[in-house]
Amino acid sequence: MTSAQSAVTPMMAQYLEIKAGYPGALLFYRMGDFYELFFDDAVAAAEALDIALTKRGKHLGDDIPMCGVPVHSAEGYLLTLIRKGFRVAVCEQMESPEEARKRGAKSVVRREVVRLVTPGTLTEESLLEARRHNYLAAFARVRGEGALAWVDISTGSFHVMPLADIRLGPELARLAPSEVILAEGESADLSGIVTESGASSSELGRAAFDSAGGEKRLCDLFKVGTLDAFGTFTRPELGAMGAIVEYLEITQKGNLPLLQAPQREAQTRVMQIDAATRRNLEITHSMSGGKAGSLLGAVDRTVTACGGRLLERRLSSPSRVREIVQERLDSVAFAVEQARLSEALRSALRKVPDLDRALSRLGLDRGGPRDLAAIRNGLAQAEEIAGILRDQDLPSLLAAAAGDLSGHDALLDLLDRALVAEPPLLARDGGFIAPEYDTELDEARKLRDEGRGVIAAMQSEYQELTGIQSLKVKHNNVLGYFVEVTATHADKMLSAPLNETFKHRQTTANQVRFTTVPLSEMETRILNAGGRALEIEKRLYDSLKAAILDESAGVSQVARAMGELDLATALADLARGEDWCRPKVDDSRALEIEAGRHPVVEQALRRDGAPFIANDCHLGGESDIWLLTGPNMAGKSTFLRQNALIALLAQAGSFVPARKAHIGMVSQLFSRVGASDDLARGRSTFMVEMVETAAILNQADEHALVILDEIGRGTATYDGLSIAWATLEHLHGVNGSRALFATHYHELTNLSDKLERVENATVSVKEHDGEVIFLHEVRRGAADRSYGVQVAKLAGLPDAVVERARVVLDALEKGEREGGTAQKALIDDLPLFSATPAPPAPSPAVRTSGVEQRLADILPDELTPREALDLIYELKTLTQG
């Protein structure tokens, strides 16, 4: 013990010793029914949790700051701390105070850190989103090669893939992990990428990423002599997976979760989508950060947690393998055609609990009786669903899922016999084992319950003996069983002959408490029986948990199968309800969409009672690029996004919002739509636009789909026009990609005559009495102007500003036609930046006609047909007069 520690109590010395092992985490130090924090931890936690900061004792002459949270509600506080960037070391009491006192009167209860809580290692139901994965990832480098591994310990999924540094950002955007592990010394150049993905970063020593050590840790974890059965892995892949296992051993204190065999993924098998495109298209999160307003929010009709997570994975990683896409589309088509069967499945699936996460909690010894019941209920529902699907001619994917639902009769029968219908949350509460399952438990319960009946009989006996009908036999954790009477009867109980039977124990403000020898003896019998019953239930809980974990692989298969069934029937329900069609997906370059719609915008308009105008898109034949012109607010951005989302949905295995769709497999999806800056990194809106455009032009291949909106708008007109012009030529001649290119630079429309695969298209508008009406219809051809002044008027700019803009616009356009002379004269002659424009001329007085005066007095709903006819004749007379 240090000299600093010697000045404090033994308990505080123990705290400081444990805290020294976790300098980067807050220490939740168990003190009875509270977790307490001291010193700097207490100051930080009190501020983060908005709880009171107090003090306890002194250290080196100074007060020790202290705060605490109740153990029973600690999960909510943990979630708040994790979301605010903290890590928490949970330190539990490993023995009772009574056991500690056996070592000496001043012995401190032994405590140990049992878990380090970090963003990527959460398993509690209340700390996780049920329909989203919570990934922990690790990135490893070996001799210039890289690999990314990721795991969700709450479901057991485990994946790895080779990965170059340049692809780390896009893959983290796809996976959206909560935490990424990096090797010491590498976080300097990679932590920025991790932070941009929204994850927190953690460091491990470089030895944790050693491939040989990683292979040994993986073999130990899966209890195999070699990893050959799982596939062939590169050294970086072994290093990344090994680092994850090492990190889990550290944070879980050796109590490793149930992980599935690692699956190796390949980038070439899924559509590549970078982080900027994911943000622009709002695939799983809207711009505001939530699910509402995203593609996922619009299409999610799953009814199970595992189905919801599977949908998010499919939308985040659309397949590029035609056979896989066709299998998924076949499943949805079957569910669409078999509407009655599909609804029966969805009704049964609604009762399915989250098997994966219940299994994970049991594996980490953080579960309880309700997790046992969740496995039982899930297996029972699986049997019911298997019955619904029996004798059905199922497509291959659903047939495989149906086959995985059965074969767990023995485990289901065991859990059915062992558990009550509605178990308590905690095993220590008891009462979750069903009667007649265990003879020894039944005997202990009988003694316990009969003892309670005897207590009731003793109360009646004592009431008769004393003549005090208000006498009660009660129990608390301090006194055990006792006889209680009100203070008005105290003298009688303390006087002979009753004082020979009733021995005084305690006096409170209004009651006096006594005990008797028979009552104390009965208390001993009851407590022994109750404690024995709880011990037996705990033993039975452990045996049931072990039986489940022995079949964990099969239970995980059941969960995956029900997720597949849920997703197919959910997408079918969406297709029927929204009138979506099955897309044709092949390896061509086609992007032929008839009457396509934007799934999110269409739903938003429907809520407002407005229709969505469907539009066609035809790429991949004679034209690979559509150059789209038209005014702002006309729907160009919506058109761009909807076609990208239709391609994404098709390759995810979903029907699409269109009358007909033919999608040639898209290898990469790029989107540069919308304006934003990145002030934290010193980037203007134009700089962000150029960085994203550069990424597209440097990476897009001939099978990519690129959507670009207003390239070059953030700089001077001719600079912007030049950049847009060169970008379009590069996409056409170098990348060879399919593209939708929206612009306000009408000069670019002339390129359709020079670039053979470029075609002009425009969003139609109608002008009436100086007002612009957006038709939202896309047709072949070019727009004649941008209608910017009309849009400004619609936005509410003052009339004086709008009129002034019209004058300047007319003059500038005239100057352009005359070679710039009039334009120069305009700039010289007019105060273009005058702060106070001349007030508009007063409007002439408006004369009201006789017809208008007469109509103002009419209430149409009150007119009879004859009166209406007479009125028409009267109005005709007024107009002729």
From TrEMBL:
<dbReference type="InterPro" id="IPR007695">
    <property type="entry name" value="DNA_mismatch_repair_MutS-lik_N"/>
</dbReference>
<feature type="domain" description="DNA mismatch repair proteins mutS family">
    <location>
        <begin position="704"/>
        <end position="720"/>
    </location>
</feature>
<dbReference type="InterPro" id="IPR007860">
    <property type="entry name" value="DNA_mmatch_repair_MutS_con_dom"/>
</dbReference>
<feature type="binding site">
    <location>
        <begin position="630"/>
        <end position="637"/>
    </location>
    <ligand>
        <name>ATP</name>
    </ligand>
</feature>
<comment type="similarity">
    <text>Belongs to the DNA mismatch repair MutS family.</text>
</comment>
<keyword id="KW-0227">DNA damage</keyword>
<dbReference type="GO" id="GO:0030983">
    <property type="term" value="F:mismatched DNA binding"/>
</dbReference>
<protein>
    <recommendedName>
        <fullName>DNA mismatch repair protein MutS</fullName>
    </recommendedName>
</protein>
<keyword id="KW-0234">DNA repair</keyword>
<dbReference type="Pfam" id="PF05192">
    <property type="entry name" value="MutS_III"/>
</dbReference>
<dbReference type="GO" id="GO:0003684">
    <property type="term" value="F:damaged DNA binding"/>
</dbReference>
<dbReference type="InterPro" id="IPR005748">
    <property type="entry name" value="DNA_mismatch_repair_MutS"/>
</dbReference>
<dbReference type="InterPro" id="IPR027417">
    <property type="entry name" value="P-loop_NTPase"/>
</dbReference>
<dbReference type="GO" id="GO:0005829">
    <property type="term" value="C:cytosol"/>
</dbReference>
<dbReference type="GO" id="GO:0005524">
    <property type="term" value="F:ATP binding"/>
</dbReference>
<keyword id="KW-0238">DNA-binding</keyword>
<dbReference type="InterPro" id="IPR045076">
    <property type="entry name" value="MutS"/>
</dbReference>
<dbReference type="InterPro" id="IPR036678">
    <property type="entry name" value="MutS_con_dom_sf"/>
</dbReference>
<dbReference type="GO" id="GO:0140664">
    <property type="term" value="F:ATP-dependent DNA damage sensor activity"/>
</dbReference>
<dbReference type="InterPro" id="IPR000432">
    <property type="entry name" value="DNA_mismatch_repair_MutS_C"/>
</dbReference>
<keyword id="KW-0067">ATP-binding</keyword>
<dbReference type="InterPro" id="IPR007696">
    <property type="entry name" value="DNA_mismatch_repair_MutS_core"/>
</dbReference>
<dbReference type="Pfam" id="PF01624">
    <property type="entry name" value="MutS_I"/>
</dbReference>
<dbReference type="InterPro" id="IPR007861">
    <property type="entry name" value="DNA_mismatch_repair_MutS_clamp"/>
</dbReference>
<dbReference type="Pfam" id="PF05190">
    <property type="entry name" value="MutS_IV"/>
</dbReference>
<dbReference type="Pfam" id="PF05188">
    <property type="entry name" value="MutS_II"/>
</dbReference>
<dbReference type="InterPro" id="IPR036187">
    <property type="entry name" value="DNA_mismatch_repair_MutS_sf"/>
</dbReference>
<comment type="function">
    <text>This protein is involved in the repair of mismatches in DNA. It is possible that it carries out the mismatch recognition step. This protein has a weak ATPase activity.</text>
</comment>
<dbReference type="InterPro" id="IPR016151">
    <property type="entry name" value="DNA_mismatch_repair_MutS_N"/>
</dbReference>
<dbReference type="InterPro" id="IPR017261">
    <property type="entry name" value="DNA_mismatch_repair_MutS/MSH"/>
</dbReference>
<dbReference type="GO" id="GO:0006298">
    <property type="term" value="P:mismatch repair"/>
</dbReference>
<dbReference type="Pfam" id="PF00488">
    <property type="entry name" value="MutS_V"/>
</dbReference>
<keyword id="KW-0547">Nucleotide-binding</keyword>
